[in-house]
Amino acid sequence: MLTEYVEKILKARVYDVAIETPLDMMPRLSQRLNNALWLKREDLQPVFSFKLRGAYNRMTHLTDRERQQGVVAASAGNHAQGVALSAKKMGISALIVMPKTTPAIKVEAVQALGAEIKLHGNSYDDACSYALDIAEQQGRTFIHPYDDPEVIAGQGTIAMEIMHQHPDPIHAVFIPVGGGGLIAGMAAYIKAFWPEIKIIGVEAEDSACLKVALEKNERVVLEQVGLFADGTAVRQIGEEPFRIARKTVDEVITVDSDELCAAINDIFDDTRSIAEPSGALAVAGAKKYIAREDIRDEQLVVIDSGANINFDRLRHVAERAELGERREVLFSTTIDEKPGSFQQFCQTLSDRGITEFNYRYADSADAQVFVGLRLNGDEERKALFASLDQAGYQWTDFSDNEMAKLHVRYMVGGHAPQVEDERLYRFEFPERPGALLRFLTRMGQRWNISLFHYRNHGAAYGRVLVGVQVSNDEQDDFHHFLNELGYNYWQETDNPAYQLFLK
Prior knowledge:
The protein has helices at about 1-10, 25-35, 50-60, 65-70, 80-90, 105-110, 125-140, 150-165, 180-195, 210-215, 240-250, 255-270, 280-295, 315-325, 340-350, 375-390, 400-405, 435-445, 475-485, 495-500; strands at about 25, 35-40, 70-75, 95-100, 115-120, 140, 170-175, 200-205, 250-255, 300-305, 330-335, 355-360, 365-375, 395, 420-430, 450-455, 460-470, 490. The protein is an alpha/beta fold. It has three domains: about 1-45 and about 150-320, Rossmann fold (3-Layer(aba) Sandwich); about 50-140, Rossmann fold, CATH 3.40.50; about 325-500, Biosynthetic Threonine Deaminase, domain 3, CATH 3.40.1020.10. Helix 12 (about 255-270) crosses helix 14. The radius of gyration is 27 Å and the shape is elongated.
């Protein structure tokens, strides 16, 4: 079987449209993890994904009659662009069926390559079923995204490039897994010549169709799949990829969304490029493997499979990357509702960098505060909570609470009609360690803080929204204090957003 695929890979025609992508060292991540990590840059392909290789290689095997009839494919992104560009290069008709939920940026990218598009259904399965009907009705050839020997061979050319780009011994190659075409082609080539190299698949934990199939020794249809790593969100591993994978794949590692966000950040730090979530799977899996095996000084290859990410998703990626790296902790705690309690609590946090602070007055006795802190790993997390225990604070760790991370952190607050003489201010102050504590220390000793929101955005200036109880008699004193404080500020008491949602 492996010999058959090696021959197909050696004969694969991909370079009419694809490029031989570089294998780049990741210097910062390698130094941090004490291993050499080499990044295969498939994000640099003309369609920003490896999918072009398999699609074009399959289409070069079309007969003259099949070329005249044209091709059809189902895809929400990378495969669609690969088929469209291949068809344009070959001068044949291509029809792509995409789910109605496909982001406009991906639809426009396929249209720009000259393919005809039909939007159908709300999932890949709906689109695929419709595409197969079209293939039968119109006589078009269906180009499968992964379950086809020629597609698999096209993807396998990545392994061929790696092995001549890195002639020194390799400990393991980490490969993202969706339907399995990529890992099948690469594993077949590598294991044929270098059986000692570990082939490690990496899947999103909510789309782990290969891992489940290997455990049960049969293909399984997942009830549902997560959508964050949408490029690999496949409910069932392909039949032919599974036949190859069960003989060549050493193990499958799964990672969560926060770990993927951290891996996207790692790739950006080393390359200044932005991987899509599925494109960062291999990096996330390698980090998990290194921590588990406690290895050092090994040569590891990771595949950056694509960079087709919507710009608006970067907000979520940036928000969750530090949590995925275990460099941020989110928790709530209860403090006394009285002047000075903020300052006392912040002193307990020591010099740790505060990334988030959410608070809204609830009652006259206790205050519930939602806090984010920057730290280094689980040991410092344990030390933090030990110090809170020693100081007598009750706390709840929300770092692994998906609802808290996704929703509750943005919903802390509400109306507080029982708060008297509240005035709302927005501040800017230079963002440096200890700046927030100094701000609270100077303000919280004289006036009761009834609302507080702060989030570190990595900018030069910190931005804080503060509600303060200031009576009419104290107004002049308070404004004198603000002017002495020296920070830019704006009064927002009359802001309609405050009046509608917070007052």
